[in-house]
Amino acid sequence: MLPTAHNAAKEGEIAKTVLMAGDPLRAKFIAENYLQDIHCYNSVRGMLGYTGLYKGKRISVQGHGMGMPSLGIYTYELYNFYNVENIIRVGSAGAIKEDVKLMDIVFAMGASTDSNYANQYQLKGTFSPTATYHLLEKAVAVAKEKNHKYHVGNVLTSDIFYGDSVSPLDWSKMGVLAVEMEAAALYMNAARANKNALCILTISDEVHSGRQLSSHDRQVSFTTMMEIALELAIEL
Fold first, then answer.
1. 109 vs 81, 106, 222, CA distance in Å?
2. Residue numbers annotated as active site
3. Which residues are recorded as binding a purine D-ribonucleoside (predicted)?
4. How far is residue 226 CA from its own chain's centroid?
5. pTM, 2 dp
6. In the chain, domain spans
7. What homologous superfamily does CATH list for 17-235?
8. If DSSP codes are grouped into helix, strand and coil, which group holds residue 99?
9. Annotated binding site
10. CB distance 92 to 116 below 8 Å
11. pLDDT tens across 82-109, in order?
C-alpha cells in the first residue's frame, strides 16, 4: 500500500535506518548539512523526508510532528509499510532534574507516560516502553568517545504541553530526567513491530529554572545530538 496518505515515498526510497525529528526543518538541516546525494522523498503535510549518504552509508531523515498521535502514525508506517528496521529520534526535551542543564544530551533508556497510548494493546497490566539496548549501548559509546556530557535514564512522555494543574516536576522524585512528547509511542511501536528504536534528546529548556533556548537554536544548534545519531546509524 505504498505510498500512504501521509508519506509519498515509493518502495526502496527510504533507508533501513531513519533519524526522526519533531520539526521537519531539523530533518532538512541534517540532510543538507550532513548527507550527500540527498533525495527528498516526502513533503506531504510539510513532513519533509530525505535519503542520502553519510560516510558512504545510506540513511534517511524525516520529521514526525509533535506528540504521540503524530509520531505514532509516521513511525508505524515506516516500520510496517516501508520495512524500516531502526528509528532514532533526535528531539528536544525539558529538564526536570536539577542536574540536567541546557544543551545536555539525554539518552532515553525508558519512557514513562501520562498517555493512554498503550491501551490499544489490551494488556492486563502496565507496559514499560524501553529503548533497544544495542542502540543505546552504541550511542553511549559514541558520546563517551567524543567526551560529550550526557545522561542516561527515564524520561516522561507527556500528552500535555500546557498543563492546567499538574507539573512534570512531580516526576523528578522518581528520578525522571526530562519531559518530552514522543518517546513512549516510538518505543511501543518498535516493540509491537519487533523493530529497533532509540530516543536521543537535547535539553532545550529547564522546567526547574525556566531557562530556555530560542526556536531558531532548537532548529540548528543541536549538532552534537545529530552527530551522535549519525555515527550510531552507520554502525547499524
1. 26, 9, 20
2. 205
3. 6, 180-182, 204-205
4. 11
5. 0.96
6. 17-235
7. Nucleoside phosphorylase domain (3.40.50.1580)
8. coil
9. 6, 22, 26, 45, 89-92, 180-182, 204-205
10. no
11. 999 999 999 999 999 999 999 999 999 9
